[in-house]
Amino acid sequence: xxxxxxxxxxxxxxxxxxxRVIYPDGTARQYGAGPDPATTLTIRQPRTxxxxxxxxxxxxxxxxxxxxxxxxxxxxxxxxxxxxxxRTHGGLPAWxxxxxxxxxxxAGWATRNTPARARRNVAHHxxxxxxxYRLFLDADMQYSCAYFTDPxxxxxxxxxxxxxxxxxxxxxxxxxxxxxIGCGWGGMALTLARDYGVQVTGITLSRNQRDTAQAxxxxxxLDGRVTIRMADYRTISGHFDRIVSVGMLEHVGPAxxxxxxxxxxxxxxxxxxxxxxxxxxxxxxxxxxxxILRNIFPGGHIPSMSQLSPAYERAQLWLTDVEVLxxxxxxxxxxxxxxFEAALPExxxxxxDRFVRMWRYYLVACQAAFEEQWQGVFQLQLARRQDAVPAxxxxxxxxxxNAYLHAAQ
Amino acid sequence: xxxxxxxxxxxxxxxxxxxRVIYPDGTARQYGAGPDPATTLTIRQPRTxxxxxxxxxxxxxxxxxxxxxxxxxxxxxxxxxxxxxxRTHGGLPAWxxxxxxxxxxxAGWATRNTPARARRNVAHHxxxxxxxYRLFLDADMQYSCAYFTDPxxxxxxxxxxxxxxxxxxxxxxxxxxxxxIGCGWGGMALTLARDYGVQVTGITLSRNQRDTAQAxxxxxxLDGRVTIRMADYRTISGHFDRIVSVGMLEHVGPAxxxxxxxxxxxxxxxxxxxxxxxxxxxxxxxxxxxxILRNIFPGGHIPSMSQLSPAYERAQLWLTDVEVLxxxxxxxxxxxxxxFEAALPExxxxxxDRFVRMWRYYLVACQAAFEEQWQGVFQLQLARRQDAVPAxxxxxxxxxxNAYLHAAQ
Lengths: 409, 409
Fold this sequence. Notes:
Two copies of one chain form a homodimer. The first copy, chain A, is an alpha/beta fold. Helices cover about 45% and strands about 20% of the residues of chain A. Chain A is built from 17 helices and eleven strands. Chain A has a seven-stranded mixed beta sheet, sandwiched between helices. The radius of gyration of chain A is 22 Å and the shape is globular. Strand 10 (about 320-325) of chain A pairs antiparallel with strand 10 of chain B, so a sheet runs across the interface.
């Protein structure tokens, strides 16, 4: 019975591209049409067929990781891109979304990130060994979307470009006090202190990140300019000329957006400027993928602008600019995955086969989502006063570009 | 009794700057503190005192226009700026907002702009004599926010810069089909057709604007490239490579935002790009000033991002960029007012003293609102596909600037 249901679901779903599915009894079926060679998905267990009918997103990820769904490694990206593309075009029957809608009501709970839960969530992901992250990230360990001024740009250069693009939006002057909320392994804090002459306080909830960032600060001789603390954004006090937060808002959860922006306002000096860089949807809010929520980012949620705007409006913050980066994160994930595969012997010395498949699925699924969904990166620039930011964007581009950088040197 | 109530309201309201009020019985009172010389407001009728208590915004405008409130012409801007600034800082007692909150529930009705009502609303304002608008607008009759790359830029140049800045965001190529929703007196359509070699359909609901725009098109020898129609955005069909809408969304009303963005999507080609330029609040939605709604823009509403974002998200449009222009509209209003005052002898030949005071109050009140409130201009760039717009903004700035303009020539 479940084979028939899945067969009908897939027949309805796949209208862009071609998919070949081999069922547990050996039957092979093709879905979709067109000239592309079909990618093949082999289901090895009858229970996996049932799981795919009831909770497609979760079952696909879990099936791939535990090996009950086989997809040739070379086909993985095409298979996931095909499935995401067809879902984006609304190909699932109405009832198939029922589980997701029901779970979305629970999402408020799943992302009710109290300080204690936020700490556990962060530890789950970021306290994996630094040595592991070093294997696939750039030299500076930027674990967020890079900025490719050209699609062929090497990853290291695109991550440097990202930091300086953000620095430009922060309108830095030497000596300014900067808060970095979610400072990761300290790359942004080090760059701002070294290249722009500012005083940075970086905060993270990950012990590993704190220790590594602190060691890097000391090694760079920047202890006088950079302070790294293990702290929650809700417990910080003081006034900062600038606030930067890159790839942290995804961990905040919709229930806390108002608090987040209220804290931002409270921590900003009167003429302060903040830059929040976050993954974002250009579509109505929807719950995080169950598989991602369970396996990768507990408590995570990707915001839509319709969730962020009521929050910063109530916090009495001027939205002074929004850049919507499209394509950049797909490229970033593609680089990460290529480096991950290249480093596979080292990865296998640290983790088992299940972990390898989980991480591969995560990187490829994210790349496919950025390619096929209404999913990009928002860079929100916010201020307390409308004149805290120049009246045109010329300060960021053209002849004026990097005027602040040169002033700092 | 009403004198006492108004006295208490003002004592509570004014904490930034100084205001001197002369009551109908001749009593003079000072509010606020600080070194600024006080601006003086003379109330000539007891009934105006009562009206100011019950509906401050409406009564102030009506009192100024009918002469029962006197403000020295040189002081008008400072007086209005002072009142707006103090309101923005939350200086009115809770009950004073009750009327406004009650009216905001009715605002849905006030801005329920059916096609017939939309036509009447537009006629109210835009079918004033073209000769009048010519007296204070720039040579091209751009009746929307200019783009000042330098605050000292002359108005004509800043309006030219606005059109080319928008043209840059439209990524035009010769021969493209462009729809201009709310084309005014045709300035944008003419510029795009002449300088970028595109085919433009301009629509307006004002007969005056349609006639003037059509005459300008013919005079420019561009009948083959520009079509001007008197039409509502809801009745247009076809597919356009680009859509531009400047200063029109303010007339749409929140009840119609979903329809507006759905129409935008339906009218856009698959790889199309739209640019919507509108006044916007960087604060929670609130109703339009009663005085503006009654006297200047019936059916008008200034959107907040929290009202626009749910609408474009549901319409399945990619938000590809948002520029938030701050300060530019205050400068634009300042220019308009200076030109209006300089042309006063001609204005008086067309309209009576009451009209002159109404128009002066409108221009000054708008300038003050842009200076003191969370009110700016949003330029939303929207597309159906994420790759319809380049991955970085370099196409709009720096060396690539105007690449499209050069290609067109």
